[in-house]
Amino acid sequence: MHKELMNQSTPHSQKIPQSALPQSEGELLAWLRLARSRRVGPSTFIRLLREHGNAEAALAALPQVAAAAGANSYAPCHPEHANAELEAGFKAGAELLCLGTPEYPPHLALIPDPPPILWAIGDPSLAHRPTVGLVGARNASSLGQRMARILAEELGPEGYIIASGLARGVDTAAHEASLETGTIAVLAGGIDVVYPRENKALWQQICQQGLVVSEAPIGTAPQARHFPKRNRIISGMSLGIVVIEGAAKSGSLITARNALDQGREVMAVPGSPLDPRATGCNMLLRDGAGLVRSGADVMEYLQSAAQGVLPIEAPEIPHPPLPQAPPPQHPRGKQSPGLFSCPAPTPASEGGGRPATTLAPNLKALLSTAPIPEDTLIRESGLPTPKAMEMIFDLEMAGEITRHPGGMLSLA
Amino acid sequence: MHKELMNQSTPHSQKIPQSALPQSEGELLAWLRLARSRRVGPSTFIRLLREHGNAEAALAALPQVAAAAGANSYAPCHPEHANAELEAGFKAGAELLCLGTPEYPPHLALIPDPPPILWAIGDPSLAHRPTVGLVGARNASSLGQRMARILAEELGPEGYIIASGLARGVDTAAHEASLETGTIAVLAGGIDVVYPRENKALWQQICQQGLVVSEAPIGTAPQARHFPKRNRIISGMSLGIVVIEGAAKSGSLITARNALDQGREVMAVPGSPLDPRATGCNMLLRDGAGLVRSGADVMEYLQSAAQGVLPIEAPEIPHPPLPQAPPPQHPRGKQSPGLFSCPAPTPASEGGGRPATTLAPNLKALLSTAPIPEDTLIRESGLPTPKAMEMIFDLEMAGEITRHPGGMLSLA
């Protein structure tokens, strides 16, 4: 059942052309430069690759693109900067997973804003197995931590990988209890920056026995604003997430919202209404989240959800044997090229390309500082999708709009 | 909205003919005798009244009815016995509410098996106001008791009456917190038998400020088997019940099932899956019960449920001024005759009366020791409803089948 989900083709907006995948360390460097260039978020990255064919060409075009959008002094990420990050990453024992390659976590590739690159230490194949995200409060009660442990211990032997965020409380309990069966830690900062420090030994164990991933540059100290972005990766790698404890306005609730946007199952562990740490969970339950008392409950929800999934039929296109990429020069560089087996269908709405400038409303006028879904903006603009995307892209490049996790946009 | 619910006409099976309502103390005594006669449960009581016109005639026919059903030495309740109960009841300050009179709790009259008579001390008009049943464990945690108090304190000022069972734990907290705004205690034993004893003072306060009711004979010591029957009255008087704490196989869960059968809202307070006292609540929540964190949640559920209620349109029948009943002889006897303003329509299925004995399957063969709904039995019998009801009645009189709360039947 989970296999079907994994075989789904990606939405067109995330499709990386085969020719754009890095086939050499030089091309990998270009990918990293493009990903690290200012204002190039996941959607922009994908769009640039599609428009310019590969990262190198996209980088070359970037200053003009930025200038056209009003950002005159724009320069892409310097090659030395990216090269230093590559070297530091490899030195830390990490490898770079590129969106569109077979090594890249397949579920994560399906979210609206997948990280173009992902540093990984450990066994990336873990992310290809059915995964459950366990999230919850850092200041979890002993009951909450026990619950995380129980769920991890019950789901692990059934073949489920546990994803969490290496934080205190629920995350720590979840990782510890799933070390033997398979655990994935998604870090908010650099993959080599362990936070909190007391989890250094756990981080090391996960690097050896499990998988640690991060989209942040090597060496990045985690900051508050990184956490929501990180949480979209936890839910994006998972079939569903379980919120174990969480206050009403906690990060766990943001994760739950992201998970919903990503079409993932949202589940929660109930708690007494008199316990503030259960407020968020009870709110989710009232809103229809699955009520979780045990690992069996989680599996039941995931299985019934999977039965509802209609795999998108991929057209049967026989493809020629792929050219073998030259082996990476760096001893730790394991990137092998690849492509998704299922080319995405071209959506009907993308056709046309009729000039609509006369009808074009001011896209910015439709936006406020409160994020709205990109889809909604495009629909409300009344513009053909490609035109609207182009305008959004320009505004993003000009630093006038901000892209949030879950395909949300707001005024900057 | 709640008024509409209260104006609904009763199902035909519960309809008491106007002529059968007690108009004198003699007739009241006959009602009590009929209700106290062996094997005359609520359904049998109503059926006998309908068939024989009044309680006196039903009592006269009872021995033959029993003999025809194979119970040869059957004798109805002795008049002295009933008279002693009446006197004891009045002496205890109680009054007798008869099904079909305006004083009788209107919601309770709508359940499949309403008590034909109900002893009451206090203000019976409380039972005419929107009521919420709060139920839960006797060994409730302090959190559970606090929750009961909070819900009662939040619902009372909004006009809701709190019904509960005067037990330890949740019940006690619920009554105490709603003394000022309106509380109804439904006892499993006699209305004058306080259990647990430490609630004597609370019982006295409720008698003075609220309402205490019981269907059991005066002086009855409560026994385990009385509690499920009592619980059907708590839910029957209520628009909905809230289970505050309850183990997986607790009486609270039986109450919840009864409430569902009665078409009442079932709500539950969540708790940690690691707390055994929350097991029942979480089970109910998983099965779709409303999740309650506060009085506001309860009101929201009740209001949206009430919006779904389509009041049964009562035919506009102008009725002549009712004959005034002779004042009861006993100083405490307050029974005034009355009738529902909405005569129930005669259901199509009750017509016919064609002899179906040749087709009659063995009704007993359709039954086992596991209770099934009477409706199901009638449908599965393939018999015309009146014929099936007659056969069920005979089996009941012969002591071969047992009637359970919620209109359920099983082999005795």
Task: Give the structure's gist in a few sentences.
The structure is a homodimer of 412-residue chains. With 412 residues, chain A is of the alpha/beta class.
Textual characterization of the structure:
The structure is a homodimer of 412-residue chains. Helices cover 38% and strands 11% of the residues of chain A. Chain A has 412 residues and is α/β, with parallel strands linked by helices. In chain A, a hairpin with a 3-residue loop joins strand 11 and strand 12 (408-411). In chain A, helix 2 runs parallel beside helix 4 (55-68), helix 3 crosses helix 4 (55-68) and helix 6 packs parallel to helix 7. Chain A starts with a helix and ends with a strand. Chains A and B meet through helix 6 and helix 11 of A and helix 6 and helix 11 of B.
Could you give the topology of this structure?
2 copies of one chain form a homodimer.
Chain A: H1 2-7, H2 25-36, H3 42-52, H4 55-68, H5 79-91, E1 95-98, E2 117-122, E3 131-135, H6 142-155, E4 161-164, H7 170-178, E5 183-186, H8 200-209, E6 211-214, H9 226-237, E7 240-243, H10 251-261, E8 265-268, H11 279-286, E9 290-291, H12 295-308, E10 372-373, H13 374-381, H14 385-397, E11 401-404, E12 408-411
Parallel strand pairs in A: 3-4, 3-7, 4-5, 5-6, 7-8, 8-9
Antiparallel strand pairs in A: 1-2, 2-6, 10-12, 11-12
Helix pairs in contact in A: 2-4, 2-5, 3-4, 6-7, 6-12, 9-10
